[in-house]
Fold this sequence. Notes:
The protein is of the alpha+beta class. The protein starts with a strand and ends in an 8-residue tail after the last helix.
Amino acid sequence: SLVVLFGATAGAYGAKLGSDERELILLVWQVVDLQNKKVGTLHKSLVKADNLDLSDQCREVSGLTPEGLGKAEPLDRVLQQFSQLVSSDLKVLGRSSYTLCSDGQLLIRQVLHPETSKKNFLLSDCFYSFYDLRKEFHTCYPSSAAVKDQTIKTMAEYLGLGTDEAEEDFGVWQVKTMVAIIFSMLSEGCNHVFTEPETVKHKYETGPCSKSETVDSETVIRARGLPWQSSDQDIARFFKGLNIAKGGVALCLNSQGRRNGEALVRFVNSEQRDLALERHKHHMGSRYIEVYKATGEEFLKIAGGTSNEVAQFLSKENQVIIRMRGLPFTATQEDVLGFLGPECPVTGGKEGLLFVKYPDGRPTGDAFVLFSCEEYAQNALKKHKEILGKRYIELFRSTAAEVQQVVLNRYMSTPLIPTLPTPIIPVMPPPYTIATGSVRDCVRLRGLPYTAGIDDILEFMGDATGDIKPHGVHMVLNQQGRPSGDAFIQMKSADKAFMVAQKCHKKMMKDRYVEVFQCSGEEMNFVLMGGTLNRSGLSPPPCKLPCLSPPAYAAFQTAAVIPAEAAALYQPQALLPSTRTPQASAAAPPTVTYYPAQAAQLYMNYTAYYPSPPVSPTTVGYIAAPPGAVAAAATATHTPLLPQPGALVRMQGLPYNTGMKEILSFFQGYQYAPDDYNGLIQLSDQARSVLQAPKEWVCL
């Protein structure tokens, strides 16, 4: 038996049904006995929606009114009545089982499943299997129009059925016509058999994904704007009614290993992906989610993995994965199992734990845990921010794709210092220098749109663009490496800066007005180093460490310059293995060190490990050391490396407000003796005497 089902929402109708998230307001159905070609009673039921504001199209097509719908039953009660009336009609016809049959996919996949999921009640099993009348019709009549172009009216016209839509109520005509089409398909000339129904997955299946897999780009979407705590199950619920491929939800992470509000989702076929795109700007809670097309390569980049350890961990299917963050570095498997306790047993005991480590074996403080059921996982999540040792532990839902992404991509890069590109020697003098001094030959732009780039600023400046110094535009970034809305521009003279400030102040850029102020090079450098410039004057930067910034703007393709004082103190040869020839070193100017323009990864490595203040994408910020130390370091011979293992130490986990005084105090009692400097760096007597005093130490 079939139950022919038709429905309508308070919004869009036809091909856009369900695309606007409007609620169901009408259900019409009738039981069809395929064997005996009999039908049961035709039923029409109005549904009371939470929002009775009907669209103009709905009012025109359906003839329904908010007043009439206000007297109807809510959806859960209507679905109960549906089940009861269908069972009663089946008994009358002498049948026992049935399958739904609808006009296309939209009513089942895009209306009923999403709405019931949002209203937190379950659909009966009959709604997880149905026949698409359009597909069945095209199979029976291959010469008819394509499936996507079919409607009830076109199918009826193809068969020459003479039903008049105006004679029947809305919904009743559609069901009667669908029944007539089915009987035509069952006639002796066709003898169509309904054998392969469409299916809706009851739940999302987790699983690993290998980088060697082939992923069809026509099956992948990118979801953007997700709440940061969203899990793969939350995303699957957002796409309820559509079939996501096994392990097809990949949460995207930022450079710190935290979720960035995006996910790549892989569906079983392109038809499901196209339906998913119709949920663009549908809501998850109070947030709307953007849905765009993506590629198979993007999905594999996030979800693919090849680690045997990860594959073995994820080989236990249908497990709930929880991510633990903030574990003490000394935590053992026994510590974690004891923290979770007997109320949330881990699948396989120790085998259900996966600690995330750096390539050198150091723990990152992250771990993934497997649980066999939702109850155990919920018990574990209740321990969020409880204490293990002396640290509170964060617990979140996770996914197989996140396991692979964190373990393989985030932490499998080499440590910070070994990956820094070796400085190269310039073959020509530096093309520009950073402004200093009190001459007010710079302007500050405040209130820029966050999407503004160099081209936008040049267009904003107009004719004054010709008065900008070469490479004189500096975008100010925040502590996350994103545009802060400020920029500094070096002009050729103070008069030019004054004219620009007068001409462009509060001029519009895109949809915002931009404030333009004249300032000095000294003030510009203070802000680029993380200080603040306001009505009360200058506030110094929060730290006095050499800092590098991420390359946020592709327009900057020139080499970054380290000023002479910083180059003398930085001593890159002491940190990096040298690959330069003695001849190249001899030919180098002694005052400037260059980094290659293509070595953009230099900046990203620094920001991935160390917090940096907002600085210009093209410059290296620094605070000069005492003049004596600079002079002494500049006269030193810069040839030896570190011959003694452990001569250089790296401190990790410092509070962000730590200064040099705190670091020197931490190492109190471990200052070098004068003779010990020979084992570290070859220094002159003057340099050794300067660096011997703790107050003169330079922190790199």
